[in-house]
Amino acid sequence: MDKKENMAALLPIGVFVLLYLGLGILFEYVLKIPMGFYNIPVVVIFLIALLVACLQRSDLTFDGKLSLMAKGVGDKNIITMILIFMTAGIFVGVVGRNSAESAAYFLLSLIPAEYAVVVLFIVSTFVSLAMGTSVGTITLLAPIAVAVASGSGFSTAFCVGTIVGGAMFGDNLSFISDTTIAACNGQGCAMRDKFRTNFAIALPAAVITAVIILVKSLGEQTGERVIGNYNLIQLIPYIIVLAGGVAGLNVFVVLLIGILSGSVIMLSTGALPPAELLPRMGAGVSGMFETSMVAILVSAICAIIAYNGGFTALLGLIRKVFHGKKGGMLGIGLLVGAMDIATANNTVAIVTVNPIAKEIAEEYGISPRRSASLLDTFSCIFQGVIPYGAQVLVAVSITAELGNPTSAFEILPNLLYPYILLVTSLAYIICIPEKKL
Q1: Model's pTM, two decimal places?
Q2: What sign has the CA pseudo-torsion 16, 20, 23, 25?
């Protein structure tokens, strides 16, 4: 690694941001292509960025650059991350969506309509925590949120915004979330340690959000409660994975137990025909291929950037702007937030920022569990509120499909949880004495 500062070495990241953000804006807002940002092949854009990285430093042979990339890709944390991505994909593929719908309809059937929106929030936090995906949670619960809006009298934007906000809770905390996997492996900390640190920030935000939703709800006139089919047995695999993760069991052991129990339960209850078990596993793994390829390409790019002195330059810039442990923590949060705004993908943002965040953490004496928590939390805050992110776009698309359309800008004011999570995150950094951080 070149210890001299070289801002030009960061050019590959700049090329990626420019191409991805520029094309995304062009597709989404100029050409009016639905889900425009997600029609851009992120792997191709990263390959272009990798080519730019390889074209730098003419004094280093191409074979030398390949050796650098191989060392970056061959890092233990990268290999572990990819294997966890794959295993988590199998788990989600096996268990499917039925259990999430069961949790929602079970709770909605028990309570009066005036409490329906706060129940939607609670369900979305649980489902996202169990599934590890905010987009998957929104896909499952947005139709239920629209049904609640139609039956109870609450606005569609309020109901849908509530489940989008709640979905970011689990995206931030879940043991099988790709953001958690990326942050923990990139910073070298146990998932249990990161969860405990993160939980102290996320739980107060969730409680405050639930109270605000409840206060808003009680002032509205409501109709009938929403009734739907549910099967509580199908919740067991998610509960096993969540409990095993909190208990500190090895993540592979937890996921394998979840896959086994999920397979038995889904087959025995008839929710999954035997002939579909292996295809569902395969589909789950396939869903993680792009994320895995991004991790590989980013690690290769970062290896070259680090060798060329790019991270040394970025660390020097942060050192000039932010001072002390609190400043370092804020720097990590803002850095990953800026990358998320540019990429509209919190996992990509974390994987890209991981190497420099690790250097910042070491420079400022920030523990790995705290740096991992900051990466995950701030990336999810920004991802949850950008109007061109997958979460908001999927919610808007579903409301349109169900004949009850609402716009992204109607949903944004109702995204209470990400806004409050930002407040609790900043309070955590600013108010806690530095020696306790």
Answers
A1: 0.71
A2: negative
